Amino acid sequence: MQKYITVSQAIRKARSRVVYPALIAMMLIMATAIYILAAFEGSLPFTILSIILMISSFGAFGAIMTYFGDKWKTWAYKNVDDVKEFRERAPNNRFSVNIFPSRWHLSIRKERLKALHIVRERIKNNTLKVILEDDYSIPRKLEIKRSLFYYLIPLAVCVWICYKTTDRLMNGTSVELVIDIILALLSSVGILFLLMKLALHPTLVIISEEGIWNKKTGEQSWDMVDSFDFQDKTVSNTNGSHITTYLHITFKPESGLEKKKSVIRYNMAYLNKNADTIEKTIKVHYYQHTHKRY
């Protein structure tokens, strides 16, 4: 019997199946080029060879990404529980999943046709969206909290600021006395606050067989859940851009919640549970208690 996986799990597997092999190959070729350049310094033929290898490393990266990317795409179309959701989310994670790519798209025709055949079979068998089975790996009660890094990183910054400012104040080397005093006090308060958070480690969301609990919504049954999904957002900074995934749960007006409280949204990067575990738990419990296709 076919065992389906969540879209989150399929996207996560793309790193091990597609990205990591391409990066490893590129780095090995680049390392070889640098070694040749250093070992045969001053030799024109070997210098040219090194340059060719360096350029080739980028070509190898693209070729491997294309080959393994198409293999992963075909595998995902066959195994994900929701083909439509996969087509919507995978491009946002920078993986092409076009069955009919443009003429500029590097793709393997054999794999493209294989993926098309799989999708057609799923349409024929009415399995474009399937119900995930409870295989007893689903927790009856999933408590979602902030990840430890969410607190540890700012805690380390506060400790460093407190140490530096206190050291200057104790040794009398402070140039801006008032500023150092303020920074020392603020960082000390920050350290105390973050240590309390670490000690208490409050729960943000509880997903159980009965429904969903959140501090601002309280306990809500599955009948009050209007929709749930994972929204991918591109975030740009000085280091470039990356995809950030948000857990997004909306409750029905019948829940009695105010409009602002009827939606809960959390950045998956700062949670202690991965997207696959959360997605599978929500889908299984939601279906079991509402008896309808999600």
Summarize the entry for a quick read.
This protein is of the alpha+beta class. The protein has seven helices and seven strands, in the order ααααβααββββββα.
Provide an overview of this structure:
This protein has 294 residues and is of the alpha+beta class. Helix content is 53%, strand content 17%. A 4-stranded antiparallel beta sheet has the order 1-2-3-4. A hairpin with a 2-residue loop joins strand 2 and strand 3 (211-214). Helix 2 packs parallel to helix 4 and helix 5 runs antiparallel to helix 6 (177-200).
**Low-confidence regions:** 97-106
How many beta strands in the DSSP annotation?
A: 7
Instruction: Report strand %.
Output: 15-25%
Number of helices, counting only DSSP H or I runs of 4 residues or more: 7
Apparent shape: flat
Helix and strand succession?
HHHHEHHEEEEEEH
| Sheet with the most strands: spatial strand order | 1-2-3-4
Largest sheet: 4 strands, antiparallel
Instruction: Assign the structural class, choosing from mainly alpha, mainly beta, alpha/beta, alpha+beta, or little secondary structure.
Output: alpha+beta
Gyration radius from CA atoms, angstroms = 26 Å
**Helical content, roughly?**
40-55%
Average pLDDT figure: 84
Distance between the termini: 21 Å
Layout of secondary structure:
Layout: H1 7-39, H2 44-79, H3 83-89, H4 109-124, E1 141-145, H5 148-171, H6 177-200, E2 203-208, E3 211-214, E4 218-221, E5 225-237, E6 240-251, E7 263-267, H7 275-290
Antiparallel strand pairs: 1-2, 2-3, 3-4, 5-6, 6-7
Helix pairs in contact: 1-2, 2-4, 5-6
